[in-house]
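Query structure, 291 tokens:
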């Protein structure tokens, strides 16, 4: 079993007696289902349905003071704290950026021998492993306690990419991508049955009408390609290449154009390197919801 402390991840705490209701009215995931030891994947959106920040969220046990912890990109921790505070109004909540004292240990390729406090299985996909929220100085001790070997962040990046989990700022742009673009609907990051949240009408409309044509797609590639490289099919632009490691990559593609290219026998390339598609379902055309 492997583990890596992720220096690019931060932690926000949302506490207070109104914390659950407060978060549930703002974000894409159902906070009513979050419990200690159980995590959910979600995002805060603009009113137009674009992703401001995505995160994993878990509940703090009552014995540790209660409330919720958001595992989010460290660069967005303070802006997200400020953004959430805008919606506070009279709600009895306290929002704190704990990134200087609490971080994220990723664990994969096995089951922990014991489950520490503030640990939960990654809710996006079981292959991604576990998350443990822990101070940086205690990361190695926590890894040893669960029977994991500490490795590098680059090893986790390769694992994340192979599992098909997009990383904001690399595989999609914040304030530019819809949840469907970043596969949040496929990674259990959007609850279509919960009540209203910011941007909900746009996201629900895309789901119901089957209008999501941009998708993060797992690809195979022989060679090194920089993130942000344009992906081509013949003379047409079909998307943007994202992160890659060990012959695996992620690309944000217009799946309708990719399907047209495949039907026409055109190669899909990035900097002249041909892309192969790891899973046909990744480039499946959207379907309208059954009514």
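Result returned for the query:
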């Amino acid at each position: 079993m492997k583990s890596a402390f992720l220096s690019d991840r931060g932690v926000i705490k949302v506490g207070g007696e109104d914390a659950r209701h407060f978060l549930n009215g703002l974000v894409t995931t159902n906070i009513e289902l979050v419990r200690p030891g159980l995590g959910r994947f979600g995002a805060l959106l603009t009113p137009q349905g674009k992703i401001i920040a995505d995160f994993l969220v878990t509940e703090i046990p009552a014995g540790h003071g209660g409330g919720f912890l958001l595992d989010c990109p460290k660069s967005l921790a303070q802006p997200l704290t400020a953004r959430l505070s805008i919606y506070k109004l009279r709600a009895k909540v306290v929002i704190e950026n704990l990134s200087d004292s609490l971080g994220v240990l990723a664990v994969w390729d096995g089951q922990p021998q014991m489950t520490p406090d503030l640990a939960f299985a990654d809710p996006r996909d079981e292959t991604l492993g576990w998350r443990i929220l822990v101070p940086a100085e205690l990361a190695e001790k926590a890894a040893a306690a669960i029977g994991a070997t500490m490795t590098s962040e680059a090893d986790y990046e390769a694992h994340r990419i192979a599992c098909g989990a997009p990383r904001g700022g690399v595989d999609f742009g914040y304030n530019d991508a819809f949840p469907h673009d970043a596969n949040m609907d496929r990674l259990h990051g959007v609850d279509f049955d919960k009540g209203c949240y910011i941007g909900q009408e746009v996201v629900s409309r895309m789901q119901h009408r089957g209008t999501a044509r941009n998708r993060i797609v797992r690809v195979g590639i022989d060679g090194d390609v920089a993130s942000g490289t344009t992906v081509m099919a013949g003379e047409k632009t079909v998307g943007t290449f994202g992160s890659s490691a060990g012959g695996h990559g992620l690309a944000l593609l217009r799946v309708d154009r990719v399907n047209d290219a495949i039907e026409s026998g055109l190669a899909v390339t990035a900097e002249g390197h041909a892309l192969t598609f790891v899973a046909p379902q990744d480039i499946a055309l959207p379907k309208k919801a059954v009514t």
